[in-house]
Specification:
10 helices, about 0% strand
Length: about 200
């Protein structure tokens, strides 16, 4: 990457970071491209050229957040011990903790609605790929634990990983939809549900 490309990448990261802060503090609907541009010390045209529109910018925020989760997950996986199923609980905690460092519940609700309705194919596909990548990360760990003898032979490790990931997604959606539900309550429920699933699959 040459200096020009490096500068462009750094500028894009700054724009995304500032957009995330504004979306969370001000709200998605109230945040304008002009506000993000002013905070990032760039012109609104620069943002339109790089992200197409506000929805594209929002999806870029979600993509950046997903990349951060993946990196944290990789660190946890690299440090795990052979046959330690607790790695799954550590991953799940990162999967629900990290998104809330970027945006609050209200902004997440707006984000998911905007992502669903977006006509920005490029950023929509990238966002969908983030979700698939994290799902595959979790599945890979479940499969590794299966090979290490943690689960009974009859278990389909890939399917178990998919079920765990689908449950995380559903519970996170329930959490951001319920203003009264705390992050602690979400993590407690996920641990309880994950334990129930793993007890059915683990060797005695």
């Amino acid at each position: 990457m040459n200096q020009r490309q490096t500068n462009k990448a750094n500028r894009q990261r700054l724009i995304v970071k500032n957009a995330a802060r504004l979306f969370s503090s001000t709200g998605y609907n109230q945040t304008t491209i002009e506000m993000v541009a002013e905070r990032s010390n760039v012109s609104p045209v620069t943002i339109y050229n790089n992200f197409e529109n506000k929805t594209g910018l929002l999806l870029a925020v979600l993509i950046e957040e997903g990349a951060g989760i993946k990196e944290l997950g990789e660190r946890i996986i690299d440090q795990r011990e052979h046959g330690d199923e607790e790695v799954l609980y550590r991953l799940i905690e990162v999967y629900v903790d990290h998104p809330m460092e970027f945006m609050n519940k209200s902004c997440w609700r707006q984000s998911l609605a905007a992502a669903t309705a977006s006509e920005s194919r490029k950023f929509t596909e990238e966002y969908q790929n983030v979700d698939k990548t994290l799902c595959q990360q979790l599945i890979a760990v479940v499969c590794a634990l299966y090979e290490e003898g943690v689960f009974i032979a009859q278990v389909d490790a890939r399917t178990l990983g998919e079920v765990l990931w689908n449950n995380i997604n559903q519970m996170f959606t329930d959490y951001i939809s319920d203003d009264a539900m705390t992050l602690g309550a979400l993590k407690s429920a996920l641990r309880r549900q994950t334990e129930a699933l793993l007890l059915l699959a683990m060797r005695p």
